[in-house]
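Action item from last week, closing it out:
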Amino acid sequence: MNSKHMQAILDVLNDLEPKQKALPYLELDSMMLAQVVEVAKRVSQNDINPTHIQNWVRRKYIPNPKKKKYNREQVANILLINDLRNIVSLEEVSNLLGYVNESLLDTSDDRINPTKLYQYYSEIFDRSQMDWQKSLQGLELEVVETLAGEEMAEEDREKVATTLVVLNLLARANLYKQIAKRWLDSLDH
């Protein structure tokens, strides 16, 4: 894989705003739905729109907003749900958040405030970005070394290398997903 391909991967990582950019918004007393959607779009890889959030309220993953405004705990849970919803089912996300804070509709039983949970999650996630960049650079080296003895045209080598990188990224994503799902399935509620 050439540096152009590696740069394309790094560009994807660099396009993502750090999740910690949402933290100042979690200091606000309340936010309108459009504001919540805007913040979630900036710090998540998932597309989100007002209908998603309204559906989560209807399904009781998020309490009803008060006077059409979401409090900081609701916003934190929305950000977490949005980050996880394409990886595991909404029911599994709810189970995970319920594991730590019982009912998502009642903050009186929380072991940790959802805003603090999001803060810790975002700090760890953002720090791990550096590890991902190192891992991707290691993957690039592994692909180059694997293909070193292979006789092929440069254009073919680039396509094979790109395919190997994408295959390995998908396999790693699946591995992490399977590990997380097994752990999630074993949690006592």
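Closing note: The chain has a mean pLDDT of 88.
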